[in-house]
What we know:
Mean pLDDT: 88
Shape: globular
InterPro entries: 2Fe-2S_ferredoxin-like_sf, 2Fe-2S_ferredoxin-type, 2Fe2S_fd_BS, Beta-grasp_dom_sf, Cbr1-like_FAD-bd_dom, FAD-bd_FR_type, Flavoprot_Pyr_Nucl_cyt_Rdtase, FNR_nucleotide-bd
Oligomer: single chain
CATH topology of the largest domain: Rossmann fold
Protein name: Glycine-betaine demethylase subunit GbcB
Helix content: 10-25%
Largest sheet: 6 strands, antiparallel
Pfam family, one: FAD_binding_6
Low-confidence stretches: 252-273
Domain 2Fe-2S ferredoxin-type: 282-366
Organism: Pseudomonas coleopterorum
Amino acid sequence: MSNPFLMPVNTQTWANGRHIVRCVKVIQETWDVRTFCFMADQPILFFFKPGQFVTLELEIEGEPVMRSYTISSAPSVPYSFSITIKRVPGGRVSNWLHDTLHEGQELAVHGPVGLFNAIDFPAPKILYLSGGVGITPVMSMARWFYDTNANVDMVFVHSARSPKDIIYHRELEHMASRVDNFSLHIICEKHGLGEPWSGYRGYLNHKLLELIAPDFMEREVYCCGPTPYMNAVKRLLESAGFDMTRYHEESFGATPPEARADAVEQAEQAADAPEVDVSELHLVEFTASGKSIRVAPGETVHAAASKLGMMIPKACGMGICGTCKVLKLGGEVEMEHNGGITEDDEAEGYILSCCSVPKGDVRIEF
C-alpha cells in the first residue's frame, strides 16, 4: 500500500510547535468568508482542544508575516484541520489568503495553543454566544460534542448582519435537526430585498435571551465576536446577576502587530529612556548567533533580540499565540503569558520571548 494514510501504525500526533501543512480544500462559506482545510503530507493526528488556534507563517510581498486564526474544525476529524477567515477590507493578510492561498499550496503553522476551549471547563449545559466570524471557536466546540455524542446540552445563539452572512448555516441546521441536545437560534440584524427571513431580527438582549434560553443562568457561557458584541454580552449577563466565573470569551480580539519588529524605532525609544544604573542591567546572551546585549529592568527577551537586529517570530505580542517560543538555557525570567505555552514546554525550559522579562543574566538559544 503506497498511501501512508492507509497505514495508521505510522500515524504521528500533532505536537505544539512548527509544522508544514498543505492546503487541500477551500470552501466558500459566505460571500466574504472562506474555510481553508489543511493536512500534512505524512499522516498526523491533529489533536487540539476545541476553541484553540494556530499561527500561520506566511510570506507576503517578500516579507515574513505571522497571523493567528482559530481552528474551526473539531479534533474528532483528526487527519486535517480548518480555519475560517473573513475577508476584511484593507486587511493585508485576510485579503492575501482569499486571493492567493489555493489547493496544493504549503505553509508553516505554529500551535495549537489557547486557554479559550471547551475541555478545561467541563459543564453539562453550555450556552454559545457568537457574532460574525467569531463563530469559529464555538463551532469547533459544538462540532466536537456533536461528533462524540457527548451528553452535553448545547444552546447555540449566533448573531449575523443578514441571512447572507450566516456562516455554516446549513451545517448548523443539520446538527439541530439530528440531535435533541443542540438548540440553534440565529439573530439577523437586518435582511435585504430577496432575502426571506423568518427568524429573530435585531440584537441580542435580556428579553430575547430569556426567551431562547430560560435557564441561561445555569449554563457555562462561551462568547466570541467583535469587541463591541462581547462587551454588550458581558453587560447583559452582569446586569442579570450571572456568575461571571462561568463566562469565557476569546481574548485574542485585537489586531496582532506585525511580526517584524522595528529595531530602529526601539533603539530610538531606548535612547530617550531615563538613564539606568549599569549595575541594574541584565545580560541577555543569544548562543546560536553569538550576540549579547545588556537590557534595563522590564525589557523583554524579544526586545533584546530586536535591538540586536534579530527577529524572533512573533504574532500576538501578548503571550497568547506561542509563536515567539525560544529555549532558555540559563538564568531566570518572569513570564506572564495568556496560554501560549504548555506546562511541558515550560518544564523543558522554553519561554515566550514577547512576555518574558529577565530577572538577571539569561542565556537564550537563538
